[in-house]
């Protein structure tokens, strides 16, 4: 059966890294007998320029009939002065909501070869292996907004159902890992966080009694993430907190360009994307880091197509390329730097070598 992959290059370096991800995906698919078809559609600023909408109806329709969606990045200074509802980022928020993608998985596992890039002491970073599960379609990003010349408001709201379903995703992941979940909130101040804590506690107690659960305030977790990251396994949190904490976690890996993500729902296609932004300052120069997108392809194979072996092969190939010193400028630390094309080729070469062995 042929699977449809919708490509959403987006803005800035998005087209460059999506092209890299497609090349690696095609290589892996050939090995594992996965028949693929591709369609490319506009989102974000690129869609505003061509269609006057950050998420055209044709793009959403294509994504809904896809088996998986691979996204580059959206946004840039060109569109900064647009009204809020017309900003490129709204295209991504609407896409997540339109596909029912409520659970965002963001693994953070620093590569030993790049430990020197982190400003943290090596002994703090070594052995860290986290999976952050971020609720993706609720909270302040989707609440009601008001704006007057003198005042603005953004509503943060969560329902019991929204918290229950993302808790189950985190718990199932933890059951396949170390059996530990850390739930992050601000329950000493926010009513939404008090609801969050109560629901997480009940779901974990009643449905996953063998797993260990701890609750932490988000400000404390912001400190623990850089002082004792090895103490955590699956980290569960709401939308805004997850957005901030996973960007902070980039310091563990040494660059946001290395971190992938998967956004999943109960049915339909998942959305796979690196967590970095559009980096308009380097767009078109051919030096963008493709590794985060390539690792997002690995997550697509794992979570979208249940091809664990194919996912691991890509992850191993990326580790080998990085270990061999094939580093783009953001991770080269002033040394010899590779461009996007050569970094992608290094992964494919190692993938083909492994497959031929």
Shape: globular
Q: Radius of gyration, rounded?
A: 20 Å
How many individual helices? 12
Can you tell me the CATH superfamily of the largest domain?
Isopropylmalate Dehydrogenase
Overall pLDDT confidence: 95
Number of E-type strands:
12
Strand order of the largest sheet: 2-1-3-12-11-4-5-10-8-9
Q: Judging by the overall fold, what is the CATH architecture of the largest domain?
A: 3-Layer(aba) Sandwich
Helix fraction bin: 40-55%
Oligomer status? single chain
What string, H for helix and E for strand, traces the elements in order? EHEHHEHEHEEEHEHEHEHEEHHH
The secondary structure category is: alpha/beta
Q: Can you tell me the residue ranges where pLDDT is under 50 for at least 5 consecutive residues? A: none
Strand content: 15-25%
Amino-to-carboxy terminus distance: 27 Å
Largest sheet composition: 10 strands, mixed
- CATH topology group of the largest domain: Isopropylmalate Dehydrogenase
């Amino acid at each position: 059966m042929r699977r449809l992959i919708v490509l959403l290059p987006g803005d800035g370096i998005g087209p460059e890294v999506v092209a890299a991800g497609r090349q690696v995906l095609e290589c892996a698919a050939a090995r594992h007998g996965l028949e693929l078809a591709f369609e490319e559609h506009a989102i974000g600023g690129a869609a505003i320029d061509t269609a006057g909408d950050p998420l055209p109806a044709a793009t959403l329709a294509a994504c809904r009939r896809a088996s998986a969606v691979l996204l580059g990045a959206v946004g840039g200074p060109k569109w900064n002065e647009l009204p809020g509802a017309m900003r490129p980022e709204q295209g991504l928020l609407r896409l997540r909501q339109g596909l029912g993608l409520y659970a965002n998985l963001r693994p953070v596992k620093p590569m030993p070869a790049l430990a020197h890039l982190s400003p943290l002491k090596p002994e703090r970073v070594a052995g860290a292996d986290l999976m952050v599960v971020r609720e993706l379609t609720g909270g302040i990003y989707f609440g009601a907004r008001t704006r007057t010349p003198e005042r603005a408001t953004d509503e943060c709201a969560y329902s019991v159902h929204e918290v229950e379903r993302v808790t189950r995703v985190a718990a199932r992941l933890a059951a396949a890992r170390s059996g530990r979940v850390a739930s992050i909130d601000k329950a000493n101040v926010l009513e939404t966080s008090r609801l969050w804590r109560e629901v997480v506690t009940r779901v974990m107690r009643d449905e996953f009694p063998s797993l260990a659960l701890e609750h932490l305030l988000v400000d404390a977790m912001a400190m623990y993430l850089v002082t004792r990251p090895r103490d955590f396994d699956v980290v569960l949190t709401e939308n805004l907190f997850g957005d901030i904490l996973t960007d902070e976690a980039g310091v563990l890996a040494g660059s946001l360009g290395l971190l992938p993500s998967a956004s999943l729902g109960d049915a339909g296609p998942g959305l796979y994307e690196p967590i970095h932004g559009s980096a308009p300052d380097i767009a078109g120069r051919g030096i963008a880091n493709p590794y985060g997108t390539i690792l997002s392809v690995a997550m697509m194979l794992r979570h979208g197509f249940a091809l664990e072996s194919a996912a691991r092969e890509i992850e191993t190939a990326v580790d080998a390329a990085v270990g061999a010193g094939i580093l783009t400028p953001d991770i080269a630390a002033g040394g010899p730097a590779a461009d996007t094309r050569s970094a992608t080729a290094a992964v494919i070469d190692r993938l083909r070598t492994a497959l031929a062995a």
